[in-house]
């Protein structure tokens, strides 16, 4: 039974996904997926230069019917960890035995269990999510969850020496530290509102004294660390996407606060302490 389940993913990928990407093998498919992610990132950069991503404080029914924010976050983000779990159960996942492959994939899954379940359940946001950003986020989660999961489970094997290499130690440390600061900063923002309160307050304390968006800064460190630790093209293009998306979002938030609060500290940077 388990063997049958294992083989169905191993058959499905070459039979359906390789042709979908015009590829003959995994190497060609990953190459196409990385290019698609790259061009998608450029299109996101272009649109966010013109207007903010329409969710949270910028939510608007111009972008489709509105879904409750908690349900939207849970269902749009959870494919990011569900895809690797499906791959683990339905493909041979030969590289799951490698310590490095396992650490990277578990790190990725932990991040997305927090992002998809814990973060939205804690959030006290009141703005619903329009359908277009919702469905784009969900498509991205499916695509990226598959790309990262398949790469680590079935495509690239890291040997035990990689575990003690400077790239892995530095990158994985950045990933863990980034994740801790990201979660802490998100919690600081969430707790600006008391339960039932609405509206936006000026964030103060900790890293918020230096930048408008330490949660985004930390997430960029996290995915840059993941890319360094894995030296993989799928991780690198995801770090690129996160950097572009979150820098623009931080820029929009910064201008939102400058407009909203007359006393917003002028010395506070947007996203990189002391720099930008
Ligand atoms: N890797 C990626 O590409 C990527 C992309 C997007 C997001 N993310 C991550 O997902 C997380 C959430 O992203 P986000 O864009 O929703 O972040 P956000 O705009 O900073 O909001 C985070 C939470 O804090 C609340 N909040 C923010 N500022 C507030 C203020 N001044 N007063 C009161 N409440 C405030 C928000 O409520 P409202 O919802 O009501 O605004 C929301 O619940 C972040 O950790 C981010 O790094 C990652």
Automatic annotation (TrEMBL):
Cell location: Endoplasmic reticulum membrane; Microsome membrane
Its membrane topology: Multi-pass membrane protein
Keywords: Differentiation, Endoplasmic reticulum, Lipid metabolism, Membrane, Microsome, NADP, Oxidoreductase, Sexual differentiation, Transmembrane, Transmembrane helix
Catalytic activity: 5alpha-pregnane-3,20-dione + NADP(+) = progesterone + NADPH + H(+); a 3-oxo-5alpha-steroid + NADP(+) = a 3-oxo-Delta(4)-steroid + NADPH + H(+); androst-4-ene-3,17-dione + NADPH + H(+) = 5alpha-androstan-3,17-dione + NADP(+); 17beta-hydroxy-5alpha-androstan-3-one + NADP(+) = testosterone + NADPH + H(+)
PROSITE patterns: S5A_REDUCTASE
Repeat among keywords: no
GO biological process, alphabetically ordered: androgen biosynthetic process; cell differentiation; hormone biosynthetic process; sex differentiation; steroid biosynthetic process
Membrane-spanning intervals of the chain: 33-53, 80-97, 103-122, 134-153, 165-184
GO molecular function annotation: 3-oxo-5-alpha-steroid 4-dehydrogenase (NADP+) activity; 3-oxo-5-alpha-steroid 4-dehydrogenase activity
Domain 3-oxo-5-alpha-steroid 4-dehydrogenase C-terminal: 128-276
Cited Pfam families: Steroid_dh
GO cellular component: endoplasmic reticulum membrane
EC number annotated for this UniProt entry: 1.3.1.22
Enzyme class label: oxidoreductase
PANTHER family per UniProt: 3-OXO-5-ALPHA-STEROID 4-DEHYDROGENASE, 3-OXO-5-ALPHA-STEROID 4-DEHYDROGENASE 1
Family (UniProt): Belongs to the steroid 5-alpha reductase family.
Function per UniProt: Converts testosterone into 5-alpha-dihydrotestosterone and progesterone or corticosterone into their corresponding 5-alpha-3-oxosteroids. It plays a central role in sexual differentiation and androgen physiology.
Protein name: 3-oxo-5alpha-steroid 4-dehydrogenase (NADP(+))
């Amino acid at each position: 039974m388990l063997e049958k389940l294992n083989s169905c993913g191993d058959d499905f990928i070459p039979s359906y996904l390789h042709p979908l990407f015009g590829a003959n093998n995994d190497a060609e498919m990953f190459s196409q997926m990385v290019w698609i992610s790259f061009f998608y990132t450029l299109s996101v950069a272009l649109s966010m230069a013109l207007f903010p991503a329409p969710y949270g404080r910028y939510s608007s029914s111009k972008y489709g019917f509105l879904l409750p924010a908690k349900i939207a976050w849970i269902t749009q983000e959870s494919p990011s960890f569900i895809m690797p779990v499906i791959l683990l159960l339905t493909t041979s996942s030969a590289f799951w035995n490698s310590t490095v492959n396992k650490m990277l994939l578990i790190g990725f899954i932990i991040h997305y269990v927090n992002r998809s379940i814990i973060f939205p359940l804690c959030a006290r946001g009141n703005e619903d999510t329009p359908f277009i950003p919702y469905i784009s986020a969900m498509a991205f989660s499916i695509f990226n969850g598959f790309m990262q999961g398949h790469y680590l489970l079935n495509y690239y094997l890291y040997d035990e020496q990689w575990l003690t290499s400077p790239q892995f130690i530095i990158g994985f440390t950045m990933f863990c530290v980034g994740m801790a600061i990201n979660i802490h900063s998100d919690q600081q923002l969430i707790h600006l509102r008391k339960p039932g309160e609405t509206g936006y307050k000026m964030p103060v304390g900790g890293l918020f004294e230096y930048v408008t968006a330490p949660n985004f800064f930390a997430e960029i460190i996290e995915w840059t660390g993941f890319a360094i630790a894995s030296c993989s093209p799928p991780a690198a293009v995801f770090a690129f996407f996160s950097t572009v998306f979150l820098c623009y979002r931080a820029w929009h938030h910064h201008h939102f606060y400058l407009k909203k609060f007359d006393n917003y500290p002028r010395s506070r940077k947007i996203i990189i302490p002391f720099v930008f």
